[in-house]
Task: inverse folding
C-alpha cells in the first residue's frame, strides 16, 4: 500500500499537467487526487442494502468535491466475526459494526485505533439507531403482543445465537431487560430467558440466517428481528408477515469507527474520515431513514417518523451498565446465556 | 553398501510373490532417493506438520488446567460426542451402501451407468454450503421430504438426524471411490474358480469378494469418517445448532473464535486432531489385519 503511494507521486511528477486540475481544487493534496482510491468498509449483516446506497451517494459527493474517483468495497457478516477479521489483518479503513463491544475488541486486542474511539464522532459514534421488534406470520395467529407471549408453551421463537450475532445479542438484552422490568429482578429475568430459549428450535449464527429460517423455511412463529430487517422482510415477502412492536425494547446503537493504523498505511485518512462524517449529513441520513434505520438528524427522523413506532427503549448503559459488563455477565463462557443451555 | 544385490522376493504361503520392501540404506536401482526424500520431508513438514504444530502451541496460553476445563465443559463434551458419534455412524452407513453402489457401477452394464458413475462425485465437487442449503430445503419441515417425515413423526432437519443426513451425503464418494478400483482389478477368475468348486453365490461373496475388498471398504469408511469429523459448511445449515443437542465441534470452534477465545478454540481443535488420529490409527491396524487375512 505504501508502494502505491510512491507510485502515485512519481506518476504525478511525470504528468505535471495534473497540476492544472489541482489548481481548480485547492485544499486537497495533489497526490491524493491523482489516483483513484479504494476504501474498505467492514460492516455487519443487515446493512448490505443500506451501504450500497450510501456508498453510491458518497462516491458522487466526493467526486463533486475533489474530483477524485473512489471505489468503496463492502464486507458483511456477523459482527463478531467481522471484528475478528479486522483484528486478524483484514485491511478495513472503516468499520461499521452492530455493537461497540466489537470495536472495543479491535482497539484493545489489535490496537488499531485509540481506546476513546467512541468519543471522536457525534452521538457516541452512532450515526443511526435501531431496535428489536417482533415479526409474526400474517394475522398474528399466536396473538403475540409483548415479551411475556414469547414463553407460551408450544410457540416457536426464532433468533440467532447471541454469541455470534450482534443483532441476537441486542434481542437477548431487550428480552432480558423487559423481563427484569416486569418485576422479580435478575432471578425472574433468568427464569424467563431460560423459558424463552426453550422455545427456540434453531440457532443460526447470524441475523440474516435467522431471517431466512423464519421467512423462507417458515420455521417458528415469531422472529426477534432488527427493526430494519423486519421492514426489509415485509418488502421482500410482502403480505406474509406482520410487524409487532412490544411494549418496550432496547435502543441499539451500531457504531462506526475509523481504523487509524490502516488508513495511515493506505493514506486514506482523508477519504475515510469524510466517509464517516458523510453518514451524519442530511443526504446520508435520508438514505438511512429510507432503509428503516432510525436517523439521528431531526429532519430525516421526522420524514420517516411514521415507520418508527415510538416505544420506550432501554439503553445498554442504563439497564446493563455498559457493554463490557453486559458482555461479561451474559455472553462470556459460563455466563447467563451458557447457563440456559447447561443441564442442571 | 550392498551394491546390486537384490533382496530375494518373498514367497508367501498363499503363493503370491511380492517384491520385498527396500531397506534403509540399501541401494535402489532408481536414482534420486536422497532428493525425493528431502522434498517429501520438506513438503510434508510445511503443508502438514507446521500448521499442526502451530495449532498445538496455541492452547497452552491458558495452561493445562485451562485446557482440561475447556474440554470437560459440558457443552464442549457434548459437541465432541455429537461430532464423532454421528460421523462414525454416517461413515458406517456408507460402508455397505457404498459397496453396493461400487458393485453396481463396476459389475453391471446398463444404460446411464456412466452418468450415475459421474453423479457419485457430485458431493466432492459441490461447495459444502450449497449442499447444506439444498439438503435443508429438502428436509426442513416445509420441504418435500421433511414434510413427509414430519407426517410420520420424524424430525429430519434441525435434529441429529439432519447432521447424519449431511454427513452421509458428503461421505459417500469416499467409500465408492475407494472400493471401485479394487473391485475392477479383482480377478474374476478366482470367483469363477470358486463357482466351479461348487461355492454358492453367497459363499462366493462372503469368502472370496468381501475379504478381498475388506481393506478398501475400511479405508473408504475411515476417509469418510475423517472428512465428516471436520465437516462444517453443509452441517451448520441443517443442524439447528442447539447447544448440547445439535451443536457440532467445528461450530463450537468458530463460536469460541468469535468470542476471541483463541486458546479455547485451539484446545478443541487439538482434541479433535488427537481423537481423529487415534481413530484412524485404529482403523489402519484393523485394515492391516484384514489385509493379512485376505492374502493368506
Result:
Amino acid at each position: 500500500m505504501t508502494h502505491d503511494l510512491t507510485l502515485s507521486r512519481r506518476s504525478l511528477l511525470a504528468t505535471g499537467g495534473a497540476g492544472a486540475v489541482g489548481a481548480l481544487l485547492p485544499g486537497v493534496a495533489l497526490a491524493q487526487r491523482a489516483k483513484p482510491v479504494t476504501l474498505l468498509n467492514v460492516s455487519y449483516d443487515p446493512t448490505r442494502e443500506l451501504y450500497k446506497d450510501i456508498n453510491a451517494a458518497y462516491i458522487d459527493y466526493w467526486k463533486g468535491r475533489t474530483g477524485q474517483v473512489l471505489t468503496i468495497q463492502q464486507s458483511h457478516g456477523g459482527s463478531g466475526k467481522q471484528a475478528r477479521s479486522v483484528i486478524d489483518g483484514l485491511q478495513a479503513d472503516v468499520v461499521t459494526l452492530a455493537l461497540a463491544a466489537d470495536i472495543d475488541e479491535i482497539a484493545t486486542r489489535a490496537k488499531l485505533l485509540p481506546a476513546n474511539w467512541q468519543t471522536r464522532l457525534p452521538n457516541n459514534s452512532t450515526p443511526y439507531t435501531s431496535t428489536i421488534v417482533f415479526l409474526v406470520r400474517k394475522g398474528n395467529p399466536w396473538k403475540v403482543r409483548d415479551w411475556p407471549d414469547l414463553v407460551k408453551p408450544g410457540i416457536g421463537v426464532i433468533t440467532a445465537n447471541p454469541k455470534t450475532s450482534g443483532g441476537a445479542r441486542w434481542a437477548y438484552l431487550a428480552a432480558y431487560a423487559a423481563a427484569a422490568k416486569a418485576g422479580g429482578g435478575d432471578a425472574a429475568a433468568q427464569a424467563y430467558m431460560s423459558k424463552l430459549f426453550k422455545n427456540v428450535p434453531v440457532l443460526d449464527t447470524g441475523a440474516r440466517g435467522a431471517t431466512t429460517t423464519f421467512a423462507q423455511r417458515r420455521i417458528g412463529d415469531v422472529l426477534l428481528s432488527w427493526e430494519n430487517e423486519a421492514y426489509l422482510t415485509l418488502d421482500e415477502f410482502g403480505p406474509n408477515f406482520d410487524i409487532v412492536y412490544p411494549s418496550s425494547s432496547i435502543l441499539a446503537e451500531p457504531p462506526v469507527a475509523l481504523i487509524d493504523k490502516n488508513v495511515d498505511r493506505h493514506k486514506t485518512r482523508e477519504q475515510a474520515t469524510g466517509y464517516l462524517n458523510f453518514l451524519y449529513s442530511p443526504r446520508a441520513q435520508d438514505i438511512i431513514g429510507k432503509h428503516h434505520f432510525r436517523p439521528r438528524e431531526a429532519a430525516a427522523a421526522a420524514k420517516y417518523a411514521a415507520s418508527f413506532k415510538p416505544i420506550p427503549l432501554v439503553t445498554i448503559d442504563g439497564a446493563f451498565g455498559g457493554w463490557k459488563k453486559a458482555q461479561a455477565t451474559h455472553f462470556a463462557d459460563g455466563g447467563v446465556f451458557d447457563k440456559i443451555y447447561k443441564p442442571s | 553398501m550392498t551394491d546390486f544385490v537384490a533382496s530375494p522376493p518373498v514367497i508367501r504361503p498363499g503363493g503370491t510373490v511380492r517384491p520385498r520392501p527396500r531397506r534403509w540404506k540399501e541401494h535402489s536401482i532408481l536414482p534420486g532417493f536422497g532428493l525425493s526424500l528431502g522434498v517429501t520431508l520438506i513438503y510434508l513438514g510445511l503443508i502438514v506438520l507446521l500448521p499442526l504444530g502451530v495449532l498445538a502451541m496455541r492452547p497452552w496460553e491458558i495452561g493445562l488446567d485451562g485446557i482440561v476445563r475447556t474440554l470437560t465443559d459440558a457443552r464442549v463434551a457434548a459437541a465432541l460426542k455429537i461430532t464423532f458419534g454421528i460421523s462414525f455412524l454416517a461413515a458406517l452407513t456408507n460402508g455397505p451402501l457404498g459397496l453396493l453402489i461400487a458393485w453396481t457401477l463396476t459389475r453391471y452394464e446398463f444404460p446411464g451407468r456412466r452418468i450415475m458413475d459421474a453423479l457419485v462425485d457430485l458431493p466432492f465437487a459441490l461447495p459444502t454450503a450449497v449442499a447444506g442449503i439444498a439438503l435443508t430445503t429438502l428436509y426442513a419441515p416445509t420441504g418435500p421430504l421433511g414434510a413427509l417425515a414430519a407426517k410420520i413423526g420424524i424430525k429430519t432437519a434441525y435434529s441429529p438426524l439432519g447432521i447424519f443426513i449431511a454427513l452421509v451425503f458428503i461421505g459417500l464418494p469416499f467409500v465408492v471411490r475407494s472400493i471401485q478400483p479394487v473391485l475392477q482389478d479383482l480377478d474374476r477368475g478366482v470367483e469363477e474358480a470358486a463357482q466351479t468348486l461348487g461355492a454358492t453365490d453367497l459363499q462366493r461373496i462372503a469368502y472370496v469378494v468381501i475379504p478381498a475388498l475388506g481393506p478398501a471398504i475400511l479405508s473408504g469408511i475411515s476417509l469418510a469418517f475423517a472428512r465428516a469429523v471436520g465437516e462444517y459448511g453443509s452441517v451448520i445449515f441443517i443442524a439447528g445448532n442447539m447447544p448440547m443437542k445439535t451443536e457440532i465441534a467445528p461450530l463450537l470452534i468458530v463460536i469460541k473464535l468469535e468470542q476471541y477465545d483463541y486458546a479455547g478454540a485451539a484446545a478443541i481443535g487439538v482434541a479433535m486432531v488427537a481423537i481423529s488420529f487415534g481413530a484412524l490409527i485404529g482403523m489402519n491396524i484393523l485394515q492391516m489385519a484384514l489385509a493379512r487375512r485376505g492374502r493368506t
